[in-house]
Amino acid sequence: MKYLTAASRLLRHSSRNLSDHRSNLQFFCSIRPSSSGLSYTSLRSYEHLIQDDCFHRKITLKNICFRGSGVGILHCLPKFQSDGIRTHHRNLASTALIPERNKSFATINSDDISYFKKVLGGRGVVQDEEKLDDANTDWMRKYKGSSKLMLQPRKTQEVSQILDYCNSRCLAVVPQGGNTGLVGGSIPVYDEVIINIGSMNNVLSFDKVSGILVCEAGCILENLMSFLDNEGYIMPLDLGAKGSCQIGGNVSTNAGGLRLLRYGSLHGSVLGLEVVLANGTVLDMLGTLRKDNTGYDLKHLFIGSEGSLGIVTKVSILTPPMLSSVNLAFLACEDYLSCQKILVEAKTKLGEILSAFEFLDINAMDLVLKHLDGLRDPLPSSKHNFYVLIETTGSMESHDKEKLEAFLVQAIESGLLTDGVVAQDINQASSFWRIREGVPEALLKEGATYKYDLSLPPEKMYNLVEEMRQRLGTAANVVAYGHLGDGNLHLNISTQQYDDNILAKIEPFVYEWTSKQRGSISAEHGIGLMKASKLHYSNSAETVQVMAAIKKVLDPNGILNPYKVLPTPALSQT
Amino acid sequence: MKILVAVKRVVDYAVKIRLKPDKSGVETSNVKMSMNPFCEIALEEALRIKESGRASEVVAVSVGQAQCTDTLRTGLAMGADRAIHVEYPGTLYPLSVAKIFKALVDAERPALLLLGKQAIDDDCNQTGQMIAGLLKWPQATFASKVVLDEGNKVATVDREVDGGLETLSLDLPAVITTDLRLNQPRYATLPNIMKAKSKVIKKLTPLDLNVEIRSDLEVVQVTEPPKRQAGVILSSVDQLIDRLKNESRVI
């Protein structure tokens, strides 16, 4: 596979140029297919090759995510006939099998643009290159699409009209919220039209007695938290991306987060949804009832479907009351076994006041202290192998503090903990949380990250980390942290640059290991583009078939977020 | 040498405060309370002096209602040796607190009295100065650096003032109030929290100290500042000049 290495070497040399997106767009403008000059079809097939290979390249080069090509690749790659899925040049079973662009999808023309402008007004139609550039790139800067159009509807009616039109024209679309997803699900793969819901950001109603909040899908999570703060309530979910992520996206991906241990998943807290289907039908399921057993509860289909079954436009969610007494302890353990024992102890001794249980290992801690400013080690006296964050939330400060301190004293005396600190005010608590929430950011600053989000039986969880360390040796830094209370491990392998050799050691080993434990290959991050071909590791073939059948019913033309969630072969079988 | 540190229990700095419906004050029920950040800094400084071997004992003192003991427990968990709680359930103003401290200092005879420069609930910035006046002790306020000489007789203190930094030399005993950049307070570690449970908090009342609490001040009303008005986009320079002249009367 000499040409692969040559191409990657060339791209690595030019990496400095490619990291400035704006210069890229101008530089590679000439290679885009145009009606004049080169024959459209021949260049398209080349572009598929380049896009596929570049996509593959995407995960081998740090910060290089340019789709479309590098001139270097054009020289190095031999021509070959297009076929359904590019597999023969991939000797690594792991790399995502990116399907080629679905031929049945149309491409945008000027009539489409005029229609959209009529429906949305000039402001709702975005063709500006800089803005599109951002919208085409995911948060991890790992994936990049090449959409030429972004629409920003302000009302459900507009979403309905857009989708109806796109369905009739067979134009593929990508629903987009805050674009903070970690599996490439919120950005186009090719030239899908981006439908950004961010302009639909009104709070519609809030019932102070029941705590039921009804809002539009484009509301940013942190803004909802501030709004509820004034009313004496909190959102039932909390995640590091709260400053940018939108509630519609949270619902569509069934986001988990830090409070799942206490308030459960969105399947429990979402009471109703308003969803627009692929053909523009508006499904009004925006109930605000705690109990409603009338027929099939369809909203659960949309929660976690990652925009592939419908676009969420309004959300009705049950919010818990804000309790005054919040305590946070940052603890140190010698080994993973102690972490597990503390979890059991915490659940029994702290019981109803336990609201979060997180862990991070020493590699994660070191990275955070290295890259994030203004943070200090809460336990500087010595190095500890594992750190555990325990949060309690209750209504009576004295009762909670007593319970927490009794639990901690017992844990120290029985040797489960080696050290710990208790936050004495909200400021100290925020800095402890910043340590745990800052790990993804620190990883991003460190270099390239291979990110895995797995649900595993708690006893087995760290075995995977240790085996991974053995497999990789000094080639990479294996960092582990996560929601220990939920059995959710965030396994991150950090390297200086993306490297196929390292990827080969990680995948499919990590998926097979997880599958053997009957774990989930994606606890909360979702499938998106990254894991669409891996669905079978955590789902039986029959299950996937039924999923594909449902997709066919709700989106016969497959225009909603194509190439994601379900593997393409499964869809073509239906 | 004994160091006395004054600590105050206030609404936590990160809480969004709300007014009581009758506008008599800030809502404090069901709201997170913690030690005043400047008091934390003062206590941290006292602990560092003790750790350097200059002081033999650090005593944390708080004046107020029963829950002040929570704040004192935090102080003990940080490392103070013992605590004193002067219990008084009503409203306290700086002069009353200063008189109580004068009586305490006469009884305890510390060589150094450390306080935070101001409390974040009333922002008075008066108590330290008043105590020094009543005791006729030298004072250095807004300290950003404190250095004691070998014999614990003189303190050299850098103060943050509007023009920059001012360095004062004080003979001990003295009163020092601390500012933000003096140090970064330590966290309360579990072993220290456990030790704190066995440390003593002595309870006193103003009567025990022969201090009569009365005040010439009375809070009549507490209101929020007026809501910020939205900006207005004007269509021409003439309109701007007209507004400046006639509405805001600036020109």
UniProtKB/TrEMBL annotation, chain A:
Keywords annotated in UniProt: FAD, Flavoprotein, Oxidoreductase
PROSITE patterns associated with the record: FAD_PCMH (PS51387)
Its EC number(s): 1.1.99.39
Cited SUPFAM superfamilies: FAD-binding/transporter-associated domain-like, FAD-linked oxidases, C-terminal domain
Catalytic activity: (R)-2-hydroxyglutarate + A = 2-oxoglutarate + AH2
MF-aspect GO terms: (R)-2-hydroxyglutarate dehydrogenase activity
Cofactors, names only: FAD
One Pfam family here: FAD-oxidase_C
Alphabetical list of InterPro entries matching this protein: FAD-bd_oxidored_4_C (IPR004113), FAD-bd_PCMH (IPR016166), FAD-bd_PCMH-like_sf (IPR036318), FAD-bd_PCMH_sub1 (IPR016167), FAD-bd_PCMH_sub2 (IPR016169), FAD-linked_Oxase-like_C (IPR016164), FAD-oxidored/transferase_4 (IPR051264), Oxid_FAD_bind_N (IPR006094)
Domain called FAD-binding PCMH-type: residue spans: 143-322
UniProt similarity note: Belongs to the FAD-binding oxidoreductase/transferase type 4 family.
Protein name: D-2-hydroxyglutarate dehydrogenase
GN (gene name): D2HGDH
From TrEMBL, chain B:
Superkingdom of the source species: Eukaryota
Record note on quaternary structure: Heterodimer of an alpha and a beta subunit.
UniProt family annotation: Belongs to the ETF beta-subunit/FixA family.
Native organism: Salvia divinorum (Maria pastora)
Subcellular localization, as worded in the UniProt entry: Mitochondrion matrix
InterPro entries: ET-Flavoprotein_bsu_CS, ETF_a/b_N, ETF_b, ETF_beta_N, Rossmann-like_a/b/a_fold
One GO term (biological process): carboxylic acid catabolic process
PROSITE patterns recorded: ETF_BETA
Protein name per its UniProtKB record: Electron transfer flavoprotein subunit beta
GO cellular component terms listed in the entry, alphabetical order: mitochondrial matrix
Keywords from the UniProt entry: Electron transport, Mitochondrion, Transport
Function, in words: The electron transfer flavoprotein serves as a specific electron acceptor for several dehydrogenases, including five acyl-CoA dehydrogenases, glutaryl-CoA and sarcosine dehydrogenase. It transfers the electrons to the main mitochondrial respiratory chain via ETF-ubiquinone oxidoreductase (ETF dehydrogenase).
Domain Electron transfer flavoprotein alpha/beta-subunit N-terminal: 23-213
